[in-house]
Design goal:
homotetramer, about 325 residues, alpha/beta, Rossmann fold, Dihydrodipicolinate Reductase, domain 2, 2 domains, 7-stranded mixed beta sheet, 6-stranded parallel beta sheet, globular
């Protein structure tokens, strides 16, 4: 038994997902791909024996396509997701779900009107083994009520096109979702702090940045985003509760003792760091669909809330002020 | 595209593999199962929509069965593997491949006569991420020529049916295979050492035991097998070379600071410790078959050699002497 | 050869220092003690064969007293230190050097007038092996220019007399000194952030608190002070530079694997955590004096600057605003 | 109050101890030194203001010398220790106490005749914080009855004069003492195992070696001695009991993340690894003497037993056989 999947957008992550679905995910069959670049679409389609469909609209409408994966560029996501909802087809949308708040409201409304959850957003950290273990520790009450979280998100470097705003929108957004999920509450304010800039990268870029969030319960979450740290892709997280603290493990790696050092390798690519998380994410999505169930992963609401939060962080970046995060009340539908 | 698999033996590991193949391995379809207990076979078959076939022989012969997984009890493995070879069907056989040396010689002969590798043996550690990272470190020459390996294999406890001989045959056999693979050479002698027995378990059982192996190059491998260590399932390994040392990582787990301790959980089950390894093992086996390739995992030779080694360890257990390991020359076929 | 030391204030830390000087520090002899409580002074004096002198003034003036250790209560420090300077005697003063900024200016002026460094302030972390190793890493340029520091200061709990202002004045002041020393620059602003309070302790107390400092170069230092964390006395610190990051080690402790956990003990007392640092601090102070050298440890300037910084943190606590830190220019004398 | 110490033998360790006693140990005063090389004695004496005495005998007899430290070359130890016993003066003797078994018996007899413990042997590991923590864990019963110990003793390299026999006599002897102390029982047999030799060092030397000891209770202790491991001075130890296991901590060191590695430094010198242990060892010895107590450290019996054990290890090295360790019954005096 397998489900026919159509994928829109055959860029880097799209191609990764196509091969993941074809080679690693049980019960998935990529039946069609679409891309604004027909050559890219053709190459990727050929590699897994799928058809090329010339537009996203036609792909969504195609009868063989039972579920859709959206990996196009961000600004196109909202319309494609809305088209999937209109077609009544489950859609897995890479982050960001939306680039405009108004689009988020339309998606929330449409999905509620459809009467069932059709949308899952690609926040893969919820599927990382380490984060899941932290979640179990928290949910078991082992560290008591959470009071603070300290997060670090470092990349070895970024390409020149990376802008100062992307530290919130592309980078810290992962911590925003992970912390909302782990803490089980919404963020209410944000302050963006600008440390001394690294001289190791493009002058246009303010890097690193620190985001200081407050949550509805008053817990504080700080996130260091440092995307030209040189040494590796490094994700750290400690949550401090009333009775204890829990820390995200580093990836397991053999310790080598040599030349006066005991060392472990630090990964360089987020794709390596979260390879298993991506696999599990899509496998669980497919498993839910095959089981006739609604998706259980990050929802439209989560995608919407994350964008509201990072938009506020960008406003704080520009104003230097603490910026309140104004989120409408969460609909019961997304409880 | 998928391959039709028949599985023989629906005990614990068989049932695990059926669900692994059905739910996690892309490109595999369990089409048939057989077991000496028809009820067990029926239940497992029903859970994945496979047929029950009443005997191993008929299952192997079934035209829908393109490849076979053998998870029956150990003494039955050799005949079932030989039947697969005779039928020209690829077979994945759980360890042990053989319980009698003579059977191993028959399998090696039959497979060579068949002219291509048909057999893979279920030494799953070669698919564990940590061991694979160690292998890369060794093969890159990072620690120079290996001189010693220190291994630890601990279980929290074993059932009463576990016998003193099983420390070599069922427990240390995993280290035997892993070290043969990591070091790339054969073992030439073994000495079994009997420390003071733990009082925490059955009086009939000599536990722990230490196995001291020598390899063809003179490297020394010591393996502590302690199957009632109480605290957890714990696999440790350090390889020491002329220029450095490398250590198998513990599984990644979040550190919790609480009540005057900083602690990480120690797993209790080998099935949890090597869950990913089992998945990768079967996925890679299926991928090779789908790609029309011979299996690349542990071969008949590896299964045969491991049994020769642990048989010698058992002789040393009884004699108290250093026992030479007499292995015929490895056929070119298995180079 | 040994130096005669008089100690003022035989409370907890005073008694500790008396025994440290008597039993562990080579070249020191405690010749006299004074305390406002004659009984306490008498008991401590008797334990090491020292004389009791009835007032601090007379102790400082006593001809046998070649150097003074001030461990009286904080508000008395400034006058006692000034008296030592007036007497031309080296003085080791426990933190805080001052409780009023004006006193600091008087001490700086008096010491400069004396023409040589007479004062050392008891910021013992500069003598902790881990911090010293970090300092070597930083000074060797291994991580490049520092951009951020993340500090954590946790106590298992505090007594009821501990006030909200003490989080800055008594607790984070240690990080203030350690970071000024490690980074080699002054702090220029501070923001005190008040997370959700722990319910595990006195309602009057805002605990935890986060202090966010900026330095002259624009580096950012965040300090979590959480003095009722329940689980232990836990000091963490990571400094992030342009090319790498360095982290303060936890105290070495044997890992115990037992009952499904691998755990190390977390210390409960700052006295245990920094026992060696206290010893080294006083030994090096005595060694300098015996060698006829000025003290090389934290200076009057360091004691003054730390108080200016934590005073600003308290103002931020009350105002909720970012508070600039206005420090006069550092005299050449303290370069 | 201080004790006048005379030191015999101003080689490397002697000079270290002189400065340790002069600069770091409270209550000790080096009053005299002797060495067969008068120039060496003169230089060391001058550095701490001690007298040179021309022979060991005269130094021991000198009325200012209240206690003796023996750091001469090994074969001279026994006579000098015997002379101290005859003079009724406490003596701290660096290892080895003896190089001939017969000398050990004479020392044991003489000390018992003297009626009180006068001799302490310089096995400094008993004063290392990590080993002491392990001892507390063991003595508290946390891991239950010990069944096995796995020890590793690695040096980066040794000079050409180091012989194959020294792996037991000079290197593994530290583990012999540490394990006798930790386990609280004697060793009963030893087997020396010769792995493939490293090619990184002198051809005359069999390096590494593994020593496999049995204790009176049947526990097994394996010791890897690898003195040209290239990468550092590395001491590891795990003790495995019926209910858990405990591992000696590595020295605390800051982790540096840089250039795709997270690394900590590995020390290169045993003098650095055990610097604190040496300090504590002499401080506690001096404290006992100042307190009018017999020494509490490793006794003549411990020094004797260690030599008996490593002599047997050397015999096993030559014979290739398991060699029984024949130790007379321990006199009550040393209980």
């Amino acid at each position: 038994m397998s489900i026919g999947i159509g994928l829109i957008g055959t860029g880097w992550i799209g191609e990764q997902h196509v091969h993941r679905l074809a080679d690693k995910v049980a019960g998935a069959q990529v039946v069609a791909v679409a891309d604004i670049d027909p050559e890219s679409a053709g190459k990727v389609a050929a590699s897994v024996g799928a058809r090329v469909i010339d537009t996203a609209e036609r792909l969504i409408a195609d009868p063989e396509v039972e579920a859709v994966v959206v990996t196009s560029w961000g600004p196109a996501h909202a319309e494609q997701v809305l088209a999937c909802i209109a077609a009544g087809k489950p859609v897995f949308c890479e982050k960001p779900l939306i680039t405009e708040i108004a689009d988020g409201l339309r998606i929330l409304k449409a999905e509620q009107a459809a009467g069932r959850r059709l949308v899952q957003v690609g926040f893969m950290r919820r599927y990382d083994a380490g984060y899941r273990q932290m979640k179990r520790v928290l949910d078991a009450g082992e560290i008591g009520e959470p009071l603070m979280a300290h997060c670090v998100h470092r990349n070895p470097n970024v390409r020149e096109a990376y802008t100062t705003e992307m530290a919130a929108k592309d980078t810290a957004v992962h911590e925003v979702d992970a912390m909302r999920w782990l803490l089980g509450e919404e963020f209410t304010s944000v302050q963006t702090i600008l440390p001394r800039k690294t001289a190791k990268r493009f002058p246009h870029l303010q890097d690193p940045q620190i985001f200081l969030f407050e949550t509805a319960s008053g817990a504080r979450v700080d996130v260091e985003a440092f995307v030209n740290c040189q040494y590796g892709y490094d994700i750290q997280c400690e949550i401090v509760g009333e009775e204890g603290a829990v820390r995200l493990p580093d990836p397991a790696a053999p310790a080598v003792r040599k030349a006066a050092k005991a060392s472990v390798e630090v990964l360089q690519e987020f794709g390596d760091r979260f390879a298993d998380a991506f696999d599990v994410e899509l496998q669980e999505w497919v498993d839910r669909l095959l089981g006739g169930q609604e998706p259980s992963g990050p929802s439209s609401w989560d995608g919407f809330a994350a964008t509201v939060v990072v938009d506020a962080a960008v406003r704080s970046l520009h104003s230097g002020e603490i910026v309140p995060i104004e989120l409408p009340e969460r609909p019961e539908f997304y409880a």
